[in-house]
Amino acid sequence: MSRVSSGLWQNLIVVQVYGANTGVGKTIFSTLLGSHFTKRAGKTRWNIDYIKPVSTGPSDEADERYVRKYAGHPVSTLFKFDEPVSPHVAARNSDYIPSDDVLNQRLSAKLKNHASACAMGRGEIGVSIIETAGGVLSPGPSGTPQADIYRPLRLPTVLVADHRLGGISSTISAAESLIVRGYDIDAVVCFDDQSKLENSIYLQEYFGKRGISAFVVPWIPDLADCSEQEETRRMGGYYDRGTRAGYMYQVAGHIVTRHVERLKKMKNMASRTRKAIWHPFTQHKSIEKADDVLVFDSAYGDFFQVKHTNKSMQTIDHKAATPLLYPAFDGSASWWTQGLGHGNPQLSLAAAYAAGRYGHIMFAGATHEPALTLAERLLAGMENTRLTKCFYTDDGSTAVEVGIKMALRAACKRYDWDGSTEDIGLLGLKGSYHGDTIGAMDASEPCVYNKKVDWYRGRGYWFDYPTVKMRRGRWIVEPPAGMEADFGPEHSFESLNDVFDNEARGYSPRYEQYIMAVLDTLVKKEGRKFGALVMEPIILGAGGMIFVDPLFQRTLVRVIRNYEFAPVPSPTPPDETTWTGLPILLDEVFTGLYRLGRFSAASFLAIHPDISVHAKLLTGGLLPLSATLASASIFDAFLGDEKADALLHGHSYTAHPIGCHVANTSLQEMEVLSSGAVWDRYRRGWAKDVTAIKVHRRDREKDTSVWSMWSKDLVDRLSHHESVDSVVALGSVLAVSLVDKKGSGYTSTAAVSLREALLTDHAIGGISVHSRVLGNVIYLMASMNSRPAHLAQVEAALLLKLDFVSGRVPG
């Protein structure tokens, strides 16, 4: 998950040479390619650099000696180990084992230096040839497979095929390993051993059908029983002929063409996008020029690879040596979906496995293992005695809509209402938003998202509530402006844990009195009917990262479950898992599945909903999938003698096995992370004392700690900043409300300048951050496996750039 630029320069062509196996001729091809460019006829002056990131074995046997001998160029070896074994074995006996990050950073720096040298060379074009060690998945010094180590750089690749018996299989396997990790294979090179195996003939046809060019290179001279002098003569002739041969002009020309095509695509993507794409949540009048469109080339770990714009280049020195792409921390977790980072190889392999095993299977009246396993995993993870059934849909909005259908049917059946002729509304919270489909949209009050949607009706009532935030170093529970009489005065707490101490805070008679008064007015005086309470637990995401007082939500659920919503009292429930009052639907699309540090955000409230909705992190950000969990008493409302009594809802891709299998892999990985050392480090940073951590380690399932991946010091410092009104931090979420004298809310532009500075001002902070704003609120979000070192860099950049846009430091 290195923070390095993807390797794309205007004046530097980078070629990463992988081998389908060890001993397939990578060094010979690399020498041929470098020698060809050095002696290539034409006006272009080529500046060649050979790079061997890792080398093992004695110096007199090293590849660099060979390349210097036959191509006349030195080889830059970044890390060398004397023992002639695999790098991960050789590194064990060395004084220093470079991490994957260090290896990529050293390689990236080497490429930048080469680009800089070419920029000073008056028209020189650089060619950096990077030769890997062993096969595609051979381990590096850290033990990580090479293809995973170098993936953040996403360098154009040439794969040297295996010419030996079994080489067809190993070559195709190597190519698929690269492709599933997001590499572009520019070419496959096959040495023609002139045997009956005919590997090169088969591989040319195989890869040609798949759009990958394959080239045949003449067989290496027979060096058996040769003296050193004769070997030098034969190989020297081989390289001399190859340098000028047509096959090398074809290979090299193809590599150059691919580079030029990539540059052209990157240059034109923004303008092509303006012509063809209708963006979500975008006022297209604001996209006046191509520079207004962000172009992403790829992503890996926590970082996007973003194309530089004219604006971002303004703060860059030595522009000619600067890569066309730069890494930007994905500060919105890609609209809250990223759980395990971009390009995660485990999720990619899981998707490939399920695609190969199943493709897609229709799900009505059928089952398959990934969907069944995932349903059982979700239900068990909720630790909820009520939830027993799992209904699959495609995204959070449709999952909420399904949940609303479930709740309304159950309420109408219980109270003998006719929802087709009577107006049945929903109860919720002000500022909440549950999705963009019409039904889910109607579950929210009028706002910027829906006020100009022609079918929107807003069928419900939305409660006011106190909010939690840190201001000037103190956690406070603040009532809505002018409603102190209803909710009481502002309360201050020593720690975030105290805010969530359900046992100490209990239930609030004042909150209960307010809720009861509202319900009496709505139900008894106005005669309105309601079918469910729908709310996001703890944090309202799209509404502006609003942190609701958990005590209010607990009290609201308690009152709803005890309130009589029909003139005739409802029957006594047969057991405690049957819903009472109204069904409670918790929308955990944003807050659930470890987003706030726990599997379910409902656990913070110590309540068991009747319906629970999950999406976003479900597949770790790889595929769209959602799940609506329901209790038996909700499920039973759809049992009947007619098909019309059933829940007639579904999608063509309901419970698609690829998504379900990826989700199982994702949840399993996040479960491991939740009990690992890194998360314990975060907890320690927020814990009151060490004892809490020791208790947690003995019984992780009963963890009641409240913490954030963002440091306590950062939150405190932000809360004291003159440009900041308040701060919220919980789990992976950090939200900063900026002061706006013109008024807060979604239409505020107070956070725009900070967002732009975080992304494009490379001269300040040392790291670029792609973030999103909700009016005057700028929020940042980590993945579940974000590295503390990266988050520390983001924190430093946030503080520095906040000072800059506030005028506290000079530009």
UniProtKB/TrEMBL annotation:
Q: Which domain of life is it from?
A: Eukaryota
Entry keyword annotation includes Transferase: yes
The Gene Ontology biological process terms listed for this entry are:
biotin biosynthetic process
PROSITE patterns for this protein: AA_TRANSFER_CLASS_3
GO molecular function terms noted in the UniProt entry: adenosylmethionine-8-amino-7-oxononanoate transaminase activity; ATP binding; dethiobiotin synthase activity; magnesium ion binding; pyridoxal phosphate binding
Question: Where in or outside the cell is it found?
Answer: Mitochondrion
One Gene Ontology term, aspect cellular component: mitochondrion
Tell me the Pfam families matching this sequence.
Answer: AAA_26, Aminotran_3
List UniProt keywords, sorted A-Z.
Aminotransferase, Pyridoxal phosphate, Transferase
> What's the protein called, per UniProt?
Pyridoxal phosphate-dependent transferase
Q: Which organism is it from?
A: Massariosphaeria phaeospora
